[in-house]
Amino acid sequence: MYILYWSLQGRRNLQNVLLLIGSYIFYGWWDYRFLGLLFVSSFVDYWVGRLMPQFYETKKAKWLLWVSLFVNLGMLFVFKYYDFFITEFQTAFASVGIPLNVTTLSIILPVGISFYTFQTLSYTIDIYRKELKPTHNIIDFFAYVSFFPQLVAGPIERASSLLPQFQNDRQKLTPEVAADALRQILWGFVKKMVFADNIGVVVDQIFGNYTEVSAITLLLGGILFACQVYSDFAGYSDIAIGVGKLFGFRLMTNFRVPMISKSIPEFWSKWHISMTTWFADYMFKPMVRNVKHSPVLSFLCVVFLFMTIGFWHGANWTFIVFGLINGLLFIPAALRRVSPKVAKFLDSLYSTRFLTAIMIIGTFIINGFTSIFFRSPDIQTAIGYVVNMFFYAPITMPSKDVLEIFFIWVVPYMIWEGYMRKHEHQMNIIHFPRWLRWSIYYFLVTLIIMVGNFGKPPFIYFQF
Fold it and tell me: Is the distance from CB of 230 to CB of 259 less than 8 angstroms?
């Protein structure tokens, strides 16, 4: 496919047709039955976008937007959240003696539905806001929605950014761009196969035996999972962005070394950027616009936003609590805006390198704690894990395996990420001497072969 694609250079329409066919085969290889959802979402939003400018001066434009929202969010609700709400309603009514007999669907969650739903919604919302002109080429639009490198786990690309790249001819792939893409892909595989999957083995052991290990081990379990999910997801993003470059596309940066952050707000400004900015632009800003003169209501909007972000990840109370905790951790940032004394105090926390390092370590630990809720299968397990960590688990040293994975794997890995934090990606080493670059390449490939996990554990974010 790749050779045929570039043999069609200068014939943009045929390239887009090839990408569309390849993307549908790619998605259908997982389960062809869900191709219909992808097609319906794309088809509805294409025609909503085509029709909307004709009715800007009437209420029909808003009705068309509601059609897009209803179809896309409706499918997302049915497949991802219907069973959760039915089960919770049944439990609530049963607690007051009113039994409900409502059948749950028990259906498979279509992979990537949370991602491509938000991607295609950005198109209709931007057209409704008059910030984007609709495309009249259905192939371009369908190829944009289904672009295979980022279809199943992002980045969530805005139509205003990615769609024009389908509407214009691809620039010739230069050796420099190809080499940069391959470096980023290599680092993505290292993140996934070497770090995420091997860290995950230890994390599974800790969470599977949380009543039998020490308090320090439990805390390290949360920290290690935070590193695992970052390596897993950022690794996928690096692979997707690198593959996009090989096909002549520039996808947005999705992570900017978030684990090296001085505060929770800074962490979220660097974590899953395509999702957080989507929620900020399409949910938070319209919501807070009406309460901007009330600091209390503005902060409640922040908390609600993060609870929604948590719920976006899955139909489970653990994700809601995860979002609630992160929203509450924005209290200092909210107080900073209304209190000069608080702002002065917060600035003093970063007045020296030592204090800055303390804040980074503190944020690292806090992320590990909140990740306990993200990782736990249910809220009862999460609460049991936390209660055991604080009140019942002994204060003893972790096992050799836990210490090795943390100090021999995680610490050097985070140091490298911090050292390369100002670059587009952490394998952007073109400025290194040639002998050093190739030494790093051989070392990383050897690392993948020797310690990479080839058991094919899926990317964590495939379940969202």
Answer: yes
The mean per-residue pLDDT over the stretch 224-230 comes to 94
Q: At what angle do helices 138-146 and 159-167 cross, to 10 degrees?
A: 130
Q: Read off the pLDDT of residues 312-369 as tens digits, 9 standing for 90 and up.
A: 998 899 999 999 999 999 888 777 776 777 777 777 777 788 888 888 999 999 999 9
Q: Which pLDDT tens digit goes with each residue over 107-144?
A: 888 888 999 999 999 999 999 999 999 999 999 999 99
Check if 313 is active-site: yes
Cis peptide leading into residue 332 (ω within 30°): no
Q: How many Å apart are CA 141 and CA 137, to the nearest integer?
A: 7
Tokens 């719920």 label which residue?
311
Q: Are 259 and 226 in contact (CB under 8 A)?
A: yes
Domain boundary assignment for the chain: 2-167, 175-463
In the chain, what is the straight-line distance between the N-terminal and C-terminal CA atoms, in Å?
Answer: 28
Catalytic one of 272, 313, 425, 431: 313
Q: How far apart are CA 164 and CA 260, in angstroms?
A: 34
User: Which region holds residue 154: left if phi is over 0, alpha if psi is between -120 and 50, else beta?
Assistant: left
Per-residue pLDDT, 250: 93
Neighbours of 462 (CB within 10 A): 14
The first and second tokens of residue 280, run together, are 């900020």
338 C-beta neighbours (distance < 10 Å), count: 12
**Under a CB-based contact definition with an 8 Å cutoff, are residues 247 and 166 in contact?**
no
